[in-house]
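Quick question, first post here. What does this chain look like in 3D?
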Amino acid sequence: MSETVIKIDHVTKQYRLGTIGGGTLQGDLQSWWARIRHKEDPNLKIGQKAYKKNEKFLALDDISLEVHKGETLGLIGRNGAGKSTTLKLLSRVTAPTEGNIYIKGKISSMLEVGTGFHPELTGRENIYLNGAILGMKRAEVTKKIDDIIEFSECEQFIDTPVKRYSSGMFVKLAFAVAAHLDSDILIMDEVLAVGDMKFQKKCIDKMLSIAKNSGRTIIYVSHNMNTVRQLCSRCAVMSKGKIIFDGDTEKAIDLYLSSADDELLLYNDYSKTYRPNFLTAKVRMLDLEILNRDSLLVKDGERIDFRIHFRAEEDIDGLCLRMMVHNADQSPIATACATKFASCRKGEIFSKEFSMDVSWLSGGRYKILMAAYETDELGSVFDADAVWPAFIFDREKRSKLDWKSRYYGDFELPELKIIKRG
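> Answer (accepted):
Ran it through. Tokens below.
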């Protein structure tokens, strides 16, 4: 077995809830005096909850994990599962409440955009700063700086203070520095989500090359299961501060996706659903009701019929609807549209019924992203409203084969027919 470079031994991390200290001695004394008299804290802001002195939150609950040299380990789980806390402990940003962590080698971390960068320094100066933090000499950084700048695609701006960089430029330069400097362990927390698709592929190829050719160890946290599949040879699933699975990447992803607490609702209210800020907001989808069904398990030969209520915020001539079907790991696989099905006037509330054929899908769980949009005379599309997920449904498993979308795709075509001649 290869050498162990990281060992997490029964580690627990606990945080106190609420604000610790009032900021001034006078404020702390006022809060203390109110507390012993069982009075309301005079320093609490409107709507702020008063926590008990010993009220705590367990971010990590007695976890143990070993990572070997040259291994690429993925950490996946829902928000709040403890992934980022684990990476902060490994990066020595904070210390464990209980337990021990043993690390052999230098660690280079990207926990968020611009970690370790000074906004007033230029990109070039920050490269040297990051090298110094990792314990490298100036000559060692100078030897690699041309490769770092070329990889980052920031040559034009390398002598500009990084406070003027976009978030994408930040990520490109930060990743280039982390990937090229001589650290033994590379830690990344969802940082590739900011970069463009071309740069993401470039980063994944670089990390695969690093793990294969240089023997460096990579720990990668992401909600993008496709990048986890491409990069990670092993995967651990976290839930509520515990590691519930550690092993094969595909099995880990299947467990993570199957444990999501999605609700298959026949009625979906969109009044409190988040909307992106790029929408024109000319129309608002109020709700969606599934018609003539007792459940959202769709069998062979069945369609999904649904009714949507709309409210027009402005006049629209030729409202359109787009239904994007995503699989369980949120990859888009197909789209169905209804074009110019209604015209509406400001303040009008109306409903339309639609029917969608999903018989071409393989068995499994699917989510719908729904958008109401309009087009102009040049064919340009303007999204007026969008909700995610609009609703979720299950397609009945029908094949005798144990269907794996990863290998076979999401479309299950009709069975082949044998042609008899003569």
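DSSP finds nine helices and 18 strands in the chain.
Residues 197-214 form the longest helix (18 residues).
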